[in-house]
């Protein structure tokens, strides 16, 4: 297809300008226009990023099915990985773009969700009971799609919707339209997924949704929202999950900044910013961060299985990303990738799709999550004429609540119970413990990349750490310590291959006397081998911080578990000698255990929820590796 020299002129004349994109970044007074031929790639690694002068090279539309590159499950709908080969880039004043775009209503018919409210509510109930309740994960995002047929030219309708979003929405990270010829995507995404610039990789987890009832958020109601347990814990959980990703792509893991408010026309969200140094190819960064937990769930790999089980249809581009790849003035790679949410897809046959999802956690109710899908879709549906516009605030109402001292204090208070390890900038060697230099640790991953965060913590304490998936057996005798890590699933299932493999590793370690630390799922399996009974909790401990006794010291730690071992006494004796147990006095739930050469914790010391996690690890290393345990204050104060 021929690309005109001025796509904006073609739009003004009502002609198809060929493949192009219009992007307004948050707060910008201009719109970026990108144009060039549309092509397809099989893998993210195949996206072109040639050398040359500074500027954008490729704008990719990454569908959800691309998650198969990581070996994760999905309902494969065959949607292509399309990209624009950017040959033209211009910055155009916003006012000029608004003058050019059609100011006309979008006309549709036969609009309705593919799942009714009652059908979606039933799916929510099944996920809460069958997945979160059975230990398959801490949170999951299930989507539904508003469908309609466009009357008239789909591209003209998309351009008109873009104009309404540029005028009526606010606070979006990208407000955009991308036209490849085969399809047009238009939306106002609030969330940066990942970006790379100047060697810095950043991620931006957003969670928690406050719905406006009028022209602006009600201050008193917003303050109540900021203290709601469900909303606070929902943001903590996605923060933990994106820290797992940062543990892979950033050299020393991610540093947490925030939280902040994301104020939009219909909604207000809460968000964090994560940052770390990165030297990877940006296409590899994209691959390793597919896709945001805010639109999938955690742990990621099992979340994809849960999505496939309960949605039973492909997600198309929902929960994927737009990805703008380029180079800076020094020739270094750059990346900017918003999540494809709050986005409408138009295809040439007149089909219109607006997908939207809700995050399901242990506190969720079916009615609440149904309402959340309607609220999240409101901005795009208003732009399509399928819902009411948000009331326009007057000058008095147009207040940034993010500047309110009481709001800022409520946000800052969210960090008080969190781990300083992830909130402070970390210098290599700053908290290394004497006696660990040169010692090697192996972390066995049970399908939960919390193990990446564990590896960073253990490395910061002075160990040299290797990670290995449970499905890749190998020798254990080259390591001073083996950590059998967390993962989803029922530890009581004798037929599950993962459980059998991890039990075999633990059995070998116990028989050899090699120092062993077991975390969460690993702890449950270790407890079972020590003769302690395992039980499913009446209410899941998913994303739950608690103050518990750990061998005589009160520690603030974070739990992600639906199962627990139980003990009736503080000391038990089994085939591997005496075992000291730290347990809940109310129900006997075992929070931690230790014996000669082994220890286990039901909680996640590496979690951002574990304020005292680094101190717990330091003490356990002292027990396992024959060095004096650190005092209760040594690491907690420094880490």
From TrEMBL:
Pfam families: Chorismate_bind, GATase. GO terms for biological process: L-tryptophan biosynthetic process. It catalyses: chorismate + L-glutamine = anthranilate + pyruvate + L-glutamate + H(+). Residues 442-620 form the Glutamine amidotransferase domain. Its EC number is 4.1.3.27. It is an enzyme of class 4 (lyase). The keyword Ubl conjugation does not apply. Keywords: Glutamine amidotransferase, Lyase. InterPro entries: ADC_synthase, Anth_synth_I-like, Chorismate_C, Class_I_gatase-like, GATASE, TrpG/PapA_dom. One of its GO terms (molecular function) is anthranilate synthase activity. Residues 117-376 form the Chorismate-utilising enzyme C-terminal domain. This is anthranilate synthase.
């Amino acid at each position: 297809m021929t690309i005109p020299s001025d796509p904006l002129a073609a739009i003004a004349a009502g002609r198809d300008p060929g493949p192009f994109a219009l992007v307004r970044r948050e707060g910008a007074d201009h719109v970026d226009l990108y144009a060039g031929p549309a092509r397809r790639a099989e893998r993210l690694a195949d996206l072109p990023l040639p050398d040359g002068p500074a500027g954008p090279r490729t704008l990719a539309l990454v569908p959800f099915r691309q998650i198969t590159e990581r070996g994760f499950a999905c309902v494969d709908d065959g949607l292509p990985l399309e990209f624009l080969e950017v040959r033209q880039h211009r910055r155009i004043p916003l006012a000029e773009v608004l003058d050019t775009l059609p100011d006309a209503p979008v006309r549709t018919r036969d609009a309705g969700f593919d799942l009714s409210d009652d059908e979606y509510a039933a799916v929510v109930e099944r996920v809460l009971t069958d997945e979160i309740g059975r230990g398959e994960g801490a949170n999951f995002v299930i989507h539904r799609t508003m469908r309609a047929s466009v009357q008239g030219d789909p591209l003209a309708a998309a351009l008109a919707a873009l104009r309404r979003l540029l005028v009526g929405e606010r606070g979006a990270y990208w407000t955009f339209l991308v036209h490849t010829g085969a399809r047009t995507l238009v939306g106002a995404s609030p969330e940066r997924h990942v970006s790379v610039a100047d060697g810095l990789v950043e991620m931006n987890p957003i969670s928690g949704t406050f719905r406006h009832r009028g022209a602006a958020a009600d201050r008193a109601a917003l303050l109540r929202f900021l203290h709601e347990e469900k909303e606070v814990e929902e943001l903590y959980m996605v923060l933990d999950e994106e820290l797992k990703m940062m543990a892979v792509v950033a050299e020393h893991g991610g540093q947490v900044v925030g939280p902040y408010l994301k104020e939009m026309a219909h909604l207000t969200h809460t968000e964090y910013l994560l940052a770390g140094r990165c030297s990877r190819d940006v296409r590899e960064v994209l691959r390793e961060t597919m896709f945001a937990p805010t639109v999938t769930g955690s742990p990621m790999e099992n979340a994809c299985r849960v999505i496939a089980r309960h949605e039973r249809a492909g997600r198309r581009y929902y929960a994927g990303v737009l990805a703008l790849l380029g180079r800076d003035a020094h020739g270094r790679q750059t990346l900017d990738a918003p999540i494809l949410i709050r986005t409408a897809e138009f295809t040439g046959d007149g089909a219109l799709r607006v997908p939207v999802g809700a995050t399901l956690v242990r506190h969720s109710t079916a009615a609440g999550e149904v309402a959340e899908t309607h609220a999240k879709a409101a901005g795009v549906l208003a732009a399509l004429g399928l819902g009411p516009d948000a009331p326009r605030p007057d000058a008095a109402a147009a207040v940034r609540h993010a500047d309110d001292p009481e709001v800022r204090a409520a946000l800052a208070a969210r960090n008080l119970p969190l781990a300083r390890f992830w909130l402070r900038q970390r210098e290599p060697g700053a908290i290394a413990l004497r006696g660990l230099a040169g010692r090697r640790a192996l972390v066995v991953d049970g399908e939960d990349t919390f193990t990446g965060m564990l590896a960073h913590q253990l490395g910061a304490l002075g160990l040299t750490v290797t990670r290995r998936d449970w499905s890749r057996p190998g020798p254990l005798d080259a390591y001073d310590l083996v950590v059998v890590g967390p993962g989803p699933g029922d530890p009581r299932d004798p037929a599950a291959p993962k459980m059998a493999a991890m039990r075999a590793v633990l059995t070998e370690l116990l028989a050899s006397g090699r120092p062993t630390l077991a975390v969460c799922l690993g702890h449950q399996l270790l407890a079972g081998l020590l003769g302690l009974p395992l039980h499913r909790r009446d209410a899941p401990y998913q994303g739950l911080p608690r103050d518990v006794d750990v061998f005589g010291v009160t520690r603030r730690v974070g739990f992600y578990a639906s199962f627990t071992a139980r003990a009736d006494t503080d000391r038990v004796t089994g085939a591997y000698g005496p075992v000291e147990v730290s347990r809940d006095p109310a129900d006997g739930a075992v929070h931690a255990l230790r014996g000669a050469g082994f220890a286990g914790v039901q909680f996640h010391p590496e979690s951002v929820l574990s304020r005292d996690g680094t101190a717990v690890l330091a003490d356990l290393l002292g027990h396992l590796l024959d060095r004096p345990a650190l005092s209760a204050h040594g690491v907690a104060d420094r880490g």
